[in-house]
Amino acid sequence: MLLDGEDWRRFFDAFGREAWRFEAQPTYTMPREQENVARFLRGEGKPADHNARWHERVRGYVESGRRVGRVRIVHQPLTDYQRYQFAWGIPGNVAAGEDIRVLDVTRKDYGLPLSGRDWWMFDETRIAHLNFRPDGTQDNRESYEGDPGPYREWRRIALEHAVPFEEYVKGLDI
């Protein structure tokens, strides 16, 4: 089942304990982000309200006793988009209460599915695939109705080998 608009929002917000994302794209081509990516690459300052709507949502989830987290998969060297996210996006998400970790798969894939599909897992039982074109443009989101077992195992592996965002970026020249 495809998940768009309000269907996606309802599917996402229905989690009881935890929403967790496997984030593997080297670049996301999101129309609403393009101007900010360009500003970052030009060396301009970050807008004060950057990603404020997501931060508000994360704070609301955390205040209600729920967790939001992700593991960001990277290969060296970082893409321009990853550098933008590491400088402008992720620090605010972490400050809002999201647990973000980074797994560098430059030398080892850890047996993870690095096929270009991202996914969200909700309460370790519901999965939503995020499908992208090679340029990072999202095609759609769809509810996965199969066995969540492999996703739980991939989550375990990713968390076992990932490091907290703050630790990963120490010493990086972003």
Can you characterise this structure?
This protein is an alpha/beta fold and 174 residues long. It has a single domain, classed as Endonuclease, Chain A. It contains six helices and seven strands. Strands 6-5-4-1-2-3-7 form a seven-stranded mixed sheet, with helices on both faces. Helix 3 (52-63) packs parallel to helix 4 (80-96). The chain is globular.
What can be said about this structure in brief?
This protein has helices at 5-13, 34-41, 52-63, 80-96, 149-161, 165-169; strands at 18-23, 67-74, 99-104, 118-122, 126-132, 138-144, 163-164. With 174 residues, the protein is an alpha/beta fold. The longest helix is centred in the middle third of the chain and has 17 residues, at 80-96.
Q: Structural class of the helix and strand makeup? A: alpha/beta
Q: Note the run of SSEs as H and E.
A: HEHHEHEEEEHEH
Distance between the termini: 39 Å
Q: What's the domain count?
A: 1
User: Strand-residue fraction?
Assistant: 15-25%
